[in-house]
Amino acid sequence: MPDLADLGAALSEGALTTEPATMEAYRRDWTQSDTAGMPLAVVRARTAADVQETVRWASAGGVPVVPRGAGSGLSGGSNAVDGCIVLSLERMRAIEIDPATRTAIVEPGALNAEVKMAAAVEGLWYPPDPSSFEICSIGGNVATNAGGLCCVKYGVTTDYVLGLDVVLADGTLVRLGGQRIKDVAGLSLLKLFVGSEGTLGIVTRAILRLVPAQSPRATLVATFATVEVAARTVVAIGRTLRPSMLELMDQASINAVEDYQSMGLDRTAGAMLLAQSDAPGGARAEEIAHMEQMCLAHGSVECFVTDDPDEGEMFAAARRAAFPAIERRGSLMLEDVGVPVPLLPELLVGIAAIAERNAVEIPVVAHAGDGNTHPIVVHPAGDAAARVRAAQAFSEIMALAISLGGTITGEHGVGRLKRAALPDQLGPDVMALTHRIKQALDPKGILNPGAGF
Amino acid sequence: MPDLADLGAALSEGALTTEPATMEAYRRDWTQSDTAGMPLAVVRARTAADVQETVRWASAGGVPVVPRGAGSGLSGGSNAVDGCIVLSLERMRAIEIDPATRTAIVEPGALNAEVKMAAAVEGLWYPPDPSSFEICSIGGNVATNAGGLCCVKYGVTTDYVLGLDVVLADGTLVRLGGQRIKDVAGLSLLKLFVGSEGTLGIVTRAILRLVPAQSPRATLVATFATVEVAARTVVAIGRTLRPSMLELMDQASINAVEDYQSMGLDRTAGAMLLAQSDAPGGARAEEIAHMEQMCLAHGSVECFVTDDPDEGEMFAAARRAAFPAIERRGSLMLEDVGVPVPLLPELLVGIAAIAERNAVEIPVVAHAGDGNTHPIVVHPAGDAAARVRAAQAFSEIMALAISLGGTITGEHGVGRLKRAALPDQLGPDVMALTHRIKQALDPKGILNPGAGF
């Protein structure tokens, strides 16, 4: 084992710490898993050179490195393993906007919201918008290939990554891509690193594609008797236009929000759809009218549309309130399963059955337009038996999604929490292929071991 | 060396041939390179099992396999090497459209245009549109991560690939992705295979994302005194809206078209921009008016707009006539270099200097909105000295693009023609990383050796 003091001396002043309170604070992401290990030290890098030094030192000693952005992950991907270096990128947060090329050159610790704000100053927009966009970092977004609400029209993180600086497992820094928009020279290594959850390399800089500022949005809210009808409406809408948001809340999540803070939502509705259009000019009104017509044609119970941004924001707030509302009901296990869009009803009916069978509450909010859902398994804090039932429900939901041709994770990543279920989705041949790539890039297995796959 | 007869017996009836005329016909793609080798045999697979049998047989004997779609490649990626099996996928061309999931399940030999047509029957659209869309195959599009004219707004092939069946170098068939839109489970292997030019595996099925049918398009044509002014206009337009097409022709290509077939283009113009908007409803007129205003504000000499599709098509025809027009002027070497959009003027001025220095003609057409250009090096057929000068110019243009932070290929692929220039773009560390991936996936090096990197 090489000497920690050597590492500390090689890094920026104050980057390395073994102070117990700090180590405790950096052991876990938002999953707050009780299986997180205890690090050897925490490195808060200030430069790419700090990252290279850390990885070189770890490689020499076979010490695991667990990279970490803002710590807002929901799958345990940044949870420490015993004896690791937790490598935090939170202090590397420079942002440079280049309006001529419409790109942002960003360090990994910069928050998603900070990039959006810097782009807005130039009349530009960075679309990917995880619900946590105010507190999550670009490095974490790249590591998980994060999605969000607008990806139904604008795609996910990987669609906006034009370039990456990556520190490999031996400490080499490679520069992939650049400020050009189209580039097919060589293998798509750039895309391989996006979504690799820190297992193949550590991102120290990203070049992100920006687009012109989003047009004003009009909003539609519609309730339906059942999730089946709501989902059929989603399919019908998707065949004719691309809304800039298309979210679904099931009855349990509507009621959780109403319990938390009365917003006048219809507690008897089987499901509620929340849609937006940001089409330019007069097309916004046309798109919203078309979606309204679709909702009514499919038997929507109530349908309300508004072109007023404040009113629209009020409804979007109901959707965003779902997570805090549900959080008050107990301890949570947050799912991220996805299925082909027309199978949403089967998924939601199956989840209701799983909830009943395991005697747990499972409200669902969904990025319905993408078929990506967040069933939230709720169990009373401190009730060990309920926790076991919740874990069982959590596994059953992933198995259900796989059986429907779906995925165990649409945007949060596998992390450490969903790792056991991954082979069921990918099968042995794809798992073997995955391990061959890992072996080729990180033969000592020091980069985020136990995460991702 | 295993016996060819064994392979023939394992394949679909008539799949294997060693007939000399057929072998000659399958030796080259459109680059018509005189360095193409002579295959051992040609396999025209009918099923994924044929592909697996072929690769297993080749793997056992260490025989190279050169996969091939429609043979419309422009970089020599499908040119045979001596003693290889040319594995043609042209007979595997089933297309199934699933309107509910908005996906196309496609065999690799299906033509891009056939997929577009099948999708259109369901009111859906497959956007990627290489200029060769009527004759190029989806398998080739995936292998090169093909682009086209609409990618300035709609992205490239990789943005539409949701799933792939891939036969690996040992004959294993892996199934990646599926009909779900968002999926971050495991490494982004899907994206790694897109653009890998047949060097990592052979695609036997693709699941493609479809979107609602494109809205009607309005068209703008504007001429400018210089390419600098035209390029500055492109940058300005891109900051405020996303046109569905934004093409540039330089003076040499305008004149080549006029020489070929008089269309009334302004031979004195330094550059011509061709833009389209497909914004929904009334927004189309607003976007075109805005672009017109931008062109005039930047000093456009003449600017013409039309909402009439036939008239718009006439102008688009001028752009598409560039290639046949230039082809009549001699033998061609077709470039595909790209730079960050604001550096287009530097690139074009540099290309003009290279043309003069090497005494060759180099007209340029460009997907200007993406910074992706097609300089076409013309030299008299049969003039050996001119051919040498053309090859020199070809190399110099790639070096220039690299020096401007650009790429040697934006959408055609490296193939065999640009391989020598790739290390200059990627550098030794990225080349080494590339070879580690190749070694992990194809340790015997049988898949398309000499192509891609």
UniProtKB/TrEMBL annotation, chains A, B:
One of its GO terms (molecular function) is oxidoreductase activity. Residues 35-213 form the FAD-binding PCMH-type domain. It comes from the Bacteria. Keywords: FAD, Flavoprotein, Oxidoreductase. SUPFAM superfamilies: FAD-binding/transporter-associated domain-like, FAD-linked oxidases, C-terminal domain. InterPro entries: FAD-bd_oxidored_4_C, FAD-bd_PCMH, FAD-bd_PCMH-like_sf, FAD-bd_PCMH_sub2, FAD-linked_Oxase-like_C, FAD-linked_OxidoTrans_Type4, Oxid_FAD_bind_N, Vanillyl_alc_oxidase_C-sub2. Pfam families: FAD-oxidase_C, FAD_binding_4. Its cofactor is FAD. PANTHER family: GLYCOLATE OXIDASE SUBUNIT GLCD (PTHR42934:SF2). Belongs to the FAD-binding oxidoreductase/transferase type 4 family. This is FAD-linked oxidase.
